[in-house]
Model the fold of this input.
Amino acid sequence: MRATAFGVLLCLAFAQTPAEAAGKQVRLAYVEWSDAVAATNILKQVLEEKGYEVKAIPLAAAAMWQAVATGDADATVAAWLPLTQAAYYEKLKNRIDLIGPNVTGAKIGWAVPASSPLNSIEDLKTKSAEVDGKVIGIDPGAGVMKTSEAAIKAYGLPVKLVDGSDATMTSALKDAIRQKKDIVVTAWTPHWMFARYELKYLADPKKVFGDDETVNTLARKGLKEDMPEVYDILKKFKLNIKDEEAMMAENEEKGAKPSETAAKWIKANRATVDGWVK
Done:
């Protein structure tokens, strides 16, 4: 997002004081990754049911963390730890309230079609030509991209990491699968592509991509005192990978609206939602 647009968004923020939900605004920052879009839309509607006005603010990952740290956003449910966004956490950990995981069992790495003869990142040392010497990536500032650069160095691979976006990466994956070609893409779970395509992660014997990740909820300092009801909902907000990937896949269908997908999930999981708000 351009700096000017970001500035305008932050200027819309205003201080909160303890009061009833009616008329109070909750500002949720998120990255426009498919999992964050699904989760943020659910939380937005749950808070709206409780009478809050909710503003969802799409930002780059670094700006999302910064917005929560400065109080220009109240919370986010899109913080990947302990590895993917570790640099942001180390820089800002004393200025945020890390509430904890809302999704467990998450993962990052490189994925290939299930039919690929590639099984390990190490295979690319001798078989990089099968994927045109490329690893198809997303936005260059993303944590998975920084770790991918580290993996290329750690394994001594003759491959190039290609910048792009979530959309361009999944488009390249779709084209390769349709043409029955091999491809390596930066990947993370949860992601809708695992619900739509038969994929596998490449083994990472050097553990450059770490073990399981978690997707975490962050709040600005003082939210617990200013909006205790919101804070309590944030603490209870949890999703599972299977549900998230199903929602993400639905959101990729032509004409789909994330708000409608979220509403359907809430209706189908009313008991879970009621547990968050009680």
